[in-house]
UniProtKB/TrEMBL annotation, chain A:
The chain crosses the membrane at residues 57-77, 118-144, 156-174, 186-208, 239-260, 297-315. This is ABC transporter permease. It holds the Pfam family OppC_N. Belongs to the binding-protein-dependent transport system permease family. One of its GO terms (cellular component) is plasma membrane.
From TrEMBL, chain B:
GO terms for cellular component: plasma membrane. This is ABC transporter permease. It is a multi-pass membrane protein. The keyword Cell membrane applies. Pfam families: BPD_transp_1, BPD_transp_1_N. The chain crosses the membrane at residues 121-139, 151-174, 194-215, 257-282, 302-328. PANTHER family: INNER MEMBRANE ABC TRANSPORTER (PTHR30465), OPPB IN A BINDING PROTEIN-DEPENDENT TRANSPORT SYSTEM (PTHR30465:SF97).
Length: 329, 335
């Protein structure tokens, strides 16, 4: 048990005993829950625990900063990221272009903001798809015994797929037809997001299945079953809320993987079209002239790394906060 | 153990067949045309004959079975002939690349050494760095070393290899001029000077991959050590009066290495995939670079064979990890 943990616990003990003591001196309480001062819900507990993880808190603040930078930034810095100003090309850090311009004179600050929007949107959407498939398969194979073996075979099959080569293949093969149907940017977005989502749900499915199998042996499930709860309500009311914490941790870490995969695809030249900035694409475009203009490589790279680092730290903090067994270790 | 191995090997066959079918159908569904680069001046009937010559005239299932036969029957026969000087495979068609019109496996054999030296060495170095770091940060949990190690390894697997690679090139290749930024595969090691040149050009790609791998493995090592350090047998060993060195390096380390060894085995095929990016950054013409050029050129046999080899590696190393785990940990019995 660490020091900060002990301090927190003692502080809480004092709070808990002080409040009822104050009440008792007045009148004996009718409701013991009210007597203890504020009630302690699970999520408040998790949040309290999360706050004590210093790295995760710093990461959360930084991550919110990055989100604000890409979400609100374009409204404050209104230069169009695709506006070509050929006379101002390759400019350094000036007042007109705080982070310089690229080889076509497009403003880097605006491009970084626009690129971040796409990168983070890809990360979030791909994560939602992966988590949805993963939880669906995990819960069904954990809950329905008959489906367990085939679904786990499927998961193992997906785990045996060489993912990066397959992703490269899928993106190259289906980029053209989807771009024609949905427009260049939207087509590639749908393609990349669904490709990443469809190839990264396996870990979540395995974790969720394991937890569901454990839950099924518990008494409250037996109780619910004995009063005739149907499977659907059983899963939605009793199983899912109890496996929420591993799902949330997997989701956080999934964002990080998705962002890295998208930028890797862009870096290999197989991501979004050239006039559509993402962080990976900006890095890829700048590599040719990295000897002359290193800042153009380093800025998007730093943003990718920082975002992924923050997300990983938040995931770490969440895992510590949600698992009561490793709390305070 | 033997029955388990045999059962798993038999189970791997349908898995691999299914994966190859998935890759094949994915390529089949693609709108890309391997004759897309042929000039428009070529008349259609000539184009049709070229298509026939590439074997694209038949239905997809015939071509799939043909490819399976070439991969699992003709190629092994050919290697057998090469080794023993027999001629079983005479007159049989090997898997031919659309790009170079030479057998796919010959091209792969040319590229494997580059990938193996860079990727293999970096994985080895990564493991060698990771294990001591894991031991120390677990033994001195929450010390400054542990905090630093945690932070550095977090950074290590948060920074994508294409970014670390590019940063290293800017610093050591461009600014300081210590190492060449492009990997020269034509270099033949003959004497001391060419050996030094080879070492110099390998430093940066190996560093990038080694750091990335070390970051992940050291985390596993630390967690596994922590798990074992709290066990009763450690207290018993200390109570017996064994020296701290024996307790940690003999009793705890041996037990902690069991799960780490399987993690190392499981990570090996993923490294081949991850090396695709690093090879692209440093322009190493290994397997990853071969795959990317083949994808761009619509070279279906090459892409199919390479991706399938990656799949075989994954299935094989998963099996090896399971077997090694069973061998190292007598509590695990599969039968």
């Amino acid at each position: 048990m660490t020091e900060r943990q002990e301090q927190l616990n003692t502080q809480e003990l004092i709070d808990e005993t002080a409040a009822p003591a104050a009440v008792i001196s007045d009148l004996p309480p009718d409701n013991p829950q009210v007597a203890g001062g504020e009630t302690r819900s699970q999520w408040r507990d998790v949040w309290r625990q999360f706050r004590s993880h210093r790295g995760a808190m710093v990461a959360l603040v930084l991550f919110i900063g990055v989100i604000l930078f890409v979400a609100i930034g374009p409204y404050l810095w209104t230069i169009d990221p695709t506006y070509v100003d050929i006379r101002a090309r390759n400019s350094g850090f000036t007042a007109a272009h705080p982070l310089g311009t690229d080889q076509l004179g497009r403003d880097m600050l605006a491009r970084l903001m626009a690129g971040g929007r796409v990168s983070i949107a890809v990360g979030l959407t791909a994560m939602i798809i992966a988590i949805f498939i993963g939880s669906l398969i995990g819960v069904t194979s954990g809950y329905f015994r008959r489906l367990d073996a085939p679904l786990m075979r499927l998961t193992e099959l997906f785990l045996a797929l060489p993912l990066l080569p397959l992703l490269l293949l899928m993106v190259t093969l289906f980029r053209e037809p989807l771009s024609q149907n949905l427009g260049p940017a939207m087509g590639v977005f749908v393609l990349i997001v669904s490709a990443i989502g469809a190839t990264s749900w396996m870990q979540a499915a395995r974790i969720v299945r394991g937890d569901v199998l454990g839950l099924k042996e518990r008494e409250f499930i037996l109780a619910a079953k004995s009063i005739g709860t149907p499977s659907r309500r059983m899963i939605l009311r009793h199983i899912l809320p109890n496996v929420l914490s591993p799902i949330m941790v997997a989701a956080t870490l999934g964002i990080a993987t998705a962002i890295i995969t998208e930028s890797a695809l862009s870096f290999l030249g197989l991501g979004f079209p050239p006039d559509f900035p993402t962080w990976g694409r900006l890095l890829y475009d700048a590599v040719d002239q990295m000897a002359l203009y290193p800042s153009r490589v380093i800025l998007p790279g730093l943003l990718i790394s920082m975002t992924v680092l923050c997300v990983n730290y938040i995931g770490d903090g969440l895992r510590d906060a949600m698992d009561p067994r490793i709390r305070g270790r | 153990m033997l029955t388990f191995t045999i059962r798993r090997l038999l189970l791997a066959i349908p898995t691999l067949l299914f994966i190859s079918l998935v890759i094949f159908l994915l390529l089949e569904l693609s709108p890309g045309d391997p004759l897309g680069d042929v000039p428009l001046t070529v008349p259609p009937e000539v184009k049709e004959r070229m298509r026939e010559a590439l074997g694209l005239g038949q239905a997809w299932y015939i071509r799939y079975v043909l490819w399976l036969k070439q991969f699992f029957w003709v190629e092994p026969l050919h290697w057998f002939d090469q080794v023993f000087g027999t001629s079983f495979s005479a007159g049989m068609q090997r898997v031919i690349s659309f790009q170079s019109r030479s057998p796919v496996f010959d091209v792969i054999a040319q590229r494997v050494p580059q990938t193996l030296t860079v990727v293999g060495l970096s994985y080895l170095i990564g493991v060698l760095i990771a294990i001591p770091i894991g031991i120390i940060s677990a033994y001195k949990q929450y010390s400054w070393f542990d905090q630093l190690g945690t932070f550095v390894s977090m950074i290590g697997f948060s920074m994508p290899t294409f970014f670390t690679g590019v940063v290293l090139i800017i610093i050591f290749g461009v600014k300081l001029q210590w190492f060449p930024s492009v990997y020269d595969t034509t270099l033949v090691v003959r004497d001391w000077d060419s050996f030094l040149a080879q070492v110099r050009q390998m430093v940066m790609p190996v560093t990038v991959l080694a750091l990335y791998n070390a970051a992940q493995i050291s985390r596993f090592m630390r967690a596994s050590m922590l798990n074992n350090l709290g066990q009763d047998y450690v207290r018993t060993a200390r109570a017996k009066g064994l020296s701290e060195k024996t307790v940690v390096l003999k009793h705890v380390l041996r037990n902690s290495l069991i799960p780490v060894v399987t993690v190392i085995a499981l990570g090996l095929p993923a490294v081949f995939g991850g090396a695709i990016i690093t090879e692209q950054v440093f322009k190493v013409n290994g397997l990853g670079q071969l795959l990317i050029t083949a994808i761009h050129a619509n070279d279906i046999p090459m892409v199919l064979t390479l991706t399938f080899i990656f799949a075989i590696l994954i299935v094989l190393f998963t099996l090896i990890a399971d077997i090694v785990y069973g061998l190292l940990d007598p509590r695990i019995r599969y039968d």
